[in-house]
Structure formats: structure tokens, C-alpha cells
Amino acid sequence: MKNRIIFLVAFVGVLGGITTAIYSSVTKPALPPAFQPAANPYSSAIYAEGIVESAQTSGENINVYPEVAGTVREILVSEGQRVKAGDTLLRIDDSIQGATAEQLASQAQAAKAMLDELKAEPRKENLEVADAQVVSAEASLKTAEDTLQKERTAYEADPRSVSKDALDDTINAAAVARAALEVAKKQDELTKAGAWIYDVRNQERQQHALEKASAASDALLAKYTLRAPRDGVVLSINTVVGNYASPQGSYDTYTQGSDPLIVLGSSPNSLHVRCYVDEILVPRLPPGSAMKAQMSIRGSDVKIPLDFVRVQPLVSPKIELSDQRQERVDVRVLPVIFKIEKPANVNLYPGELVDVYIGE
After folding, report:
1. Are residues 241 and 351 in the same domain?
2. For residue range 109-118, what is the model confidence (pLDDT) as tens digits?
3. Residue ranges of E strands in the chain
4. Spatial separation of the C-alpha atoms in residues 176 and 144, rounded to whole Å
5. 213 in the same domain as 147
6. Which residues 6+ apart lie within 8 Å of 143 measured at CB?
7. CA-to-CA distance for 22 and 121, rounded, in angstroms?
8. 317 vs 284, more confident
9. What is the number of structural domains in the chain?
């Protein structure tokens, strides 16, 4: 009985081994690739890595940085939104600078009011006061001279009728009255002459300086509002309301670096491809007018012909695609820019990496 059980177990094991061997020997057909890899469409071509960017006459995208620091108070656009030149994109808290601008504007207005006052002199009321003072001084002089004349006549008739001291006091009083009349007349002339030209010029300079200070303060206040420098599309917004923004941008907790607050690009239907051609392949590049190229979108079978736009005539270290700015590199590349006619049914966005073949 025991031998039968052992024999049965052995038989099952052999049968299972044979079955497994037969199943394993069956070759399954390979799965078709999800997409065809990039292939050279020309008999001879130069391969280059490329990156999609918005169409610009120079540079890549428009990176909007603030010129002042502060807390983001309001964001008035959204990603993907089309904007016109001058549209408000974002506002930074300007409460302190706003108060400073108002203060300087008030000081400039006060300086102008003072200048207008100087130019409006003499006032009618001041002229009337000056004329009245002249009349009063003339009357005082007349009284003093009449008194002197009486005392002098009396003294000449009888020296005992008026003392010598009293006569001398009267003579002095008449002299003081005569001098007071001269002062009143001079003051009247000074009032009629109006403000001194040097006072006017000094006040003009003060007004000019305060107006310039007010204009500079207003210009600084305007920098707390970020506006679109040109027509375009908002590609990305790298901050939120309440974040601190500086001229270096907004801090990114993921990359631990600073990003522009807002990135603007051209119309999504107007795109460029920036290709980085290895320096050892640069001598093989055909002239721009004869340059033909084709782009392959990674992860798809889409291939798009490219039109030559320009060459950026500066060979630079090959760090653009990896973004590793601290690495030591010896390989250099020449940027060549092509224009894309984007098909309507293809998803393509700035920042995508693509494969490019440039026909020789």
C-alpha cells in the first residue's frame, strides 16, 4: 500500500513537470510597441534634442518678476488665460508705499500753493494796510511838527514859558515821526513790489523737487502692480495670495529655488522648437535657407515638419535640458530654432522635450 502511494505521487510529479515544460516552451507573440521610436526620415541627418517653447523673436518665454518685494495681495489671471499688453496680472501689498506717495503728493501741492501765493503778491489787503500806515505816519509827523512849532515860538517869545528839555524832547519826537514816515513809505514800496524774485525762484525749485519726488514715489507705487508687457498667454503662475514675493521671484518648496511669479508665452498655436546641436555636428549643418527638419513627439507616432527660423549664434555648455547648473560639462551645443505648424488634434505644450532630425 505504501509503495503504491509513493508511485502515485511520483507519477503526478512527473506529469506536472512535463506539463510545465510543454507550457513554458510555447513562444508567445511579442506585444506591438505603444508607439514607434523616433527614426531618421532623411538619407543623412543630424539628430538633436529639442524643447518646445513659445514663439518669440528672441529668448524663450517672458518671465515676469516684480521689481519690489512684498506680500502677494491679489492674482487677477489664471493659467491658460489670454492677456493683452497692459492687463493687470498681479498686485503686491502697497499700503506703505501708497501712504508715502500720498504724503509726497500733498507736500508738492503745498509747495505749489506757496509759489502761487508768492506770485500773487501784493495782496489788496496788504496794500491797503501799507497805505494806511503811511497816512498814519504822516499824521503823526504833522502832529509832532505842529507841537514843535508851537513850543519853539513860545520859547523864542519867552524862554521861561517852555523848558529847554521839553523843547529838545519835542524836537526828537518830530525827528522820530519823520523817520517813521520814511519807514512806512519804504514798507509801502516793498509791499507794492511783491515777492522777491529770489524767494520765487527758491520756491520754484522746492516745488520742482517735491513734484519729482512725488512722481518717483508714484512710479514706485505702480511697480506693486504687475502688468502684461505684451499680448500672450499665461503659461504658469508660481505663487498664491499671501506668498512673499521678491525681485528674485517666489520661493518654490519643491525645487528649493526661486521661480518667476508669472510666465507668459505666445499663442498656443504659435510654437517654436529650440534644438541643441552638438558642437562636433555644427560643421555639418546646412545653410538656414536650405535646412529641413522633422520633429517626433515622444510617446506618440506624431511627426511634424519644421520650418527654420534662426540660429542663436552662441555655442554654450550643454546644461539647458538637464537644468543641472552646477555640473561640470565640456560638451557645448549650438541652439537652432524652428517654427512648428501645430496640428489641430495634437497636444503640444511649451516645455516638452522632443526628438529632432535635421537633414544634411
Report:
1. no
2. 999 999 999 8
3. 45-54, 62-64, 70-75, 82-83, 88-92, 225-227, 232-237, 244-245, 250-252, 257-259, 262-265, 270-278, 292-297, 303-311, 316-317, 332-341, 353-359
4. 9
5. no
6. 177
7. 119
8. 284
9. 4
